[in-house]
Design goal:
This protein is α/β, with parallel strands linked by helices. The protein is built from 20 helices and 8 strands. The chain binds guanosine-5'-diphosphate (GDP) and magnesium ion. The site of guanosine-5'-diphosphate has 17 residues, from α5. One of its GO terms (cellular component) is signal recognition particle.
Length: about 450
C-alpha cells in the first residue's frame, strides 16, 4: 500500500524537523503511483501532486504522527478538498415540480439511479414522478417502469402503440402531468449511447431545453477509470450538468474517476451508487472516497485516532524524559490512558504498521488488565510514582492492599514498567523521538 511505500521512503527522516526536498520528491513519486493505480487521469495526478508538494514543503514534522503518516494526512486532506469537502445537497425548486435530469453513457446506471433517487426522495416525503425519455432501446421504457414499481412511484411514458415517440415531447408533457397529479419532483431518464455522439448530445440538450432542469446529473460508471475525463468533458460541453453521480462503486474500482471528473469539471459529486438494489445508494461522502482512492482506510483511521488521543504537552514531556531514563509511573499511566483512548487495543494492533515488539507487549494487555494497572498506580504515593525504585517489599504490600490486588500483580507492574522504560529508551534512540510517534505506541 501507499502507507508501506511511504514508510520505507521516509525511514531516514525520523527525527528531522522538516521534510527535505529530496524526501518530498521521493514521496511524490509514491503518491503518483498510488493515484495512477486508482485510475486517476494523468493530468489530474500531475496537478494534484504539485499541490501536495507545495503543502508538504511548509509543513513541520508533527509530534503526533510519523513523517509517512503526516504526508498521508496531507494527501488525504487535499483529496477530500478536491472531492468537494462537504457533501453538496440536491437543489430543489422553490416552486414544484423540481426537475432532475439524468445524462450519461448507456450502461452507466441512469435508469437504475432514477429508481434509487425516486425511492430516496419518497422516503423524505416527496412524491416523485419518473419520466421515460429513453425511447431508443426497445426495453428501456419497461425497465424504468419496473424500477418505478419497485420504488413504489409512478412512471410517465409514451402510450404504447403510438410509434417510437418523441422524447422531447414526452419530457414536456411530463411536467404538465406532474403539475396535474401533484408530483413535486420529476426525474427524467434519458437515452445513452455506448460512446459519446452528437445525436445523443443534441437530444439530451433538447430535452434539457424543454424541461429546464433544476439539476442535471451526469451519471458515470466508476469502473471506466481514465475514460471518465473525456466522457465528462463531452457531456459538459454537449449538455452541461450541475452535479455528478458515481455508480458501480461496489466493483473493484478504486474511484479515481471521482477525482478526475471533479477536478476537470469542477462540478460536485452528489451521490454514489454501490449495487443493483434500489437501496444501494447514498449521498456522496468525500472523506470515504478519499480513503478509497488512497486504498488505506485503516491507516487513516489510525492517524485520526492517534491525533485525537495525542496530548502534545504530556507527550513532549514524556519524550524529553525518555532519553534521560526518567520516565515515571505517572507518565506510564498517562501513556496507557492515551493508548486506551485510541479504542480497543485489539483494533489498534491490527492497524499499526511495524511496531513489532510493542505489539507483543500490548497483546498481553487487554482493557480490563489496563484498568487493574491503573488502579495499582493510583494506589501509589506521588513519590513512588515519580521514583519507582523506592518501591520495596513493604511498600508493595501496602499498595496491593490499597488497590485490592495481589502483591504479585504489583511486582508484575513494577517489573513491566522497568522493562517498558528500557524498551522505550531504545525506541527513542532508533526513531529520534519518543512517545509522540503513534507507531511507537
Ligand atoms: P443506463 O443504460 O444508464 O440506464 O444503465 P442501467 O441503469 O440500465 O444500468 C446498467 C447495468 O448496470 C444494469 O445491469 C444495472 O443493474 C447495473 N447497475 C447500475 N448501477 C449499478 C451499481 O451501482 N452497481 C452495480 N453492480 N450495478 C449497477
Ligand atoms: Mg437506461
Amino acid at each position: 500500500t501507499l502507507s508501506d511505500r511511504l514508510t520505507s521512503v521516509l525511514q531516514n527522516l525520523r527525527g528531522k524537523g522538516k521534510l527535505s526536498d529530496a524526501d518530498i520528491d521521493a514521496t511524490a513519486r509514491e503518491i503518483r503511483i498510488a493515484l495512477l493505480e486508482a485510475d486517476v487521469a494523468l493530468p489530474v495526478v500531475r496537478e494534484f501532486i504539485k499541490q501536495v508538494k507545495d503543502r508538504a514543503k511548509g509543513a513541520e514534522v508533527s509530534q503526533a504522527l510519523n513523517p509517512a503518516q503526516q504526508v498521508i494526512k496531507i494527501v488525504n486532506e487535499e483529496l477530500i478538498g478536491i472531492l468537494g469537502g462537504e457533501t453538496r445537497r440536491l437543489n430543489l425548486a422553490k416552486n414544484p415540480p423540481s426537475v432532475i435530469m439524468l445524462a450519461g453513457l448507456q450502461g452507466s446506471g441512469k435508469t437504475t439511479l432514477a429508481g434509487k433517487l425516486a425511492l430516496w426522495l419518497k422516503k423524505q416525503g416527496h412524491t416523485p414522478l419518473l419520466v421515460a425519455c429513453d425511447l431508443q432501446r426497445p426495453n428501456a421504457v419497461t425497465q424504468l417502469q419496473v424500477v418505478g414499481e419497485r420504488a413504489g412511484v409512478t412512471t410517465f411514458a409514451p402510450e404504447p402503440g403510438n410509434g417510437v415517440g418523441d422524447p422531447v415531447d414526452v419530457a414536456r408533457r411530463s411536467i404538465e402531468e406532474a403539475r396535474r397529479a401533484q408530483h413535486d419532483v420529476v426525474i427524467v431518464d434519458t437515452a445513452g449511447r455506448l460512446g459519446v455522439d452528437e445525436e445523443l448530445m443534441r437530444q439530451a440538450a433538447d430535452i434539457r431545453d424543454a424541461v429546464t432542469p433544476d439539476e442535471t446529473l451526469f451519471v458515470v460508471d466508476a469502473m471506466i477509470g481514465q475514460d471518465a475525463v473525456t466522457t465528462a468533458e463531452a457531456f459538459r460541453d454537449g449538455v452541461g450538468f450541475s452535479g455528478v453521480v458515481l455508480t458501480k462503486l461496489d466493483g473493484d474500482a478504486r474511484g479515481g474517476a471521482a477525482l478526475s471528473v471533479r477536478h476537470v469539471t469542477g462540478k460536485p459529486i452528489l451521490f454514489a451508487s454501490n449495487g443493483e438494489k434500489l437501496e444501494d445508494f447514498d449521498v456522496f461522502h468525500p472523506d470515504r472516497m478519499a480513503s478509497r482512492i488512497l486504498g488505506m482506510g485503516d491507516v487513516l483511521t489510525l492517524i485520526e485516532q492517534a491525533e485525537q488521543a495525542f496530548d502534545q504537552e504530556k507527550a513532549e514531556r514524556a519524550a524529553a524524559k525518555l532519553g534521560t531514563g526518567e520516565l515515571t509511573l505517572e507518565d506510564f499511566l498517562e501513556q496507557m490512558q492515551a493508548v486506551r483512548r485510541m479504542g480497543p487495543i485489539g483494533n489498534l494492533l491490527g492497524m499499526l504498521p511495524g511496531a513489532g515488539q510493542m505489539k507483543e507487549q500490548l497483546a498481553q494487555v487487554d482493557d480490563s488488565h489496563l484498568d487493574r494497572l491503573q488502579a495499582i498506580i493510583r494506589g501509589m504515593t506521588p513519590a513512588e510514582r515519580a521514583n519507582p525504585k523506592i518501591i520495596n517489599a513493604s511498600r508493595r504490600q501496602r499498595i496491593a492492599k490499597g488497590s485490592g490486588v495481589t502483591v504479585r500483580e504489583v511486582n508484575d507492574l513494577v517489573n513491566r514498567f522497568f522493562e517498558a522504560r528500557k524498551m522505550m529508551q531504545q525506541m527513542a534512540g532508533r526513531f529520534g523521538f519518543g512517545l509522540g510517534g503513534s507507531a511507537t505506541k
